[in-house]
Amino acid sequence: MTGAARTDAERVEGVNTAFYEALERGDFEELATLWLGDGEPQVSCVHPGWPVLTGRGEVLRSYALIMANTDYIQFFLTDVQVAVTGGTALVTCTENILSGGPAPDDSDEPGPLVGQLVVATNVFLRTPDGWKLWSHHGSPVLAESEDDEGDDTAV
């Protein structure tokens, strides 16, 4: 890998990290700056269990809704892979998510924390303003890996 390609991969990984950090902080303004603008190719997003969202307005509204209804969220990214080809970059990772929703109506206590595994693909385009998100796709991990299944062999 050339020095320039390595630099691009590091920049893309930095923007990818900034995306998750903005979501954790509930910083909608920062999150919005990381996505492509209106005059560029149409953005898309698939949240786990949601239909495909297309267009900057629809995608950003979904994040505003998530932020408004999530009291706490933290992402631990693992298996991060970055590939850059020309002006396009692909990041795949596993989102190890810890989140909590609003408190029940009759309680001052915070909502319960829930863990979830999501595999994500984030596509970035190089722009004059740096790398910007073009597409995010997250899918829940429903199957256990072979390592998690234990030994069920009959004797």
UniProtKB/TrEMBL annotation:
Domain of life: Bacteria
InterPro entries (UniProt xref): NTF2-like_dom_sf (IPR032710), SnoaL-like (IPR037401)
Pfam families for the chain: SnoaL_3
Domain SnoaL-like, residue spans: 12-141
PANTHER family, per database record: NUCLEAR TRANSPORT FACTOR 2 (NTF2) FAMILY PROTEIN
This protein's name: 3-dehydroquinate dehydratase
Native source species: Streptomyces sulfonofaciens
Lineage: Bacteria, Bacillati, Actinomycetota, Actinomycetes, Kitasatosporales
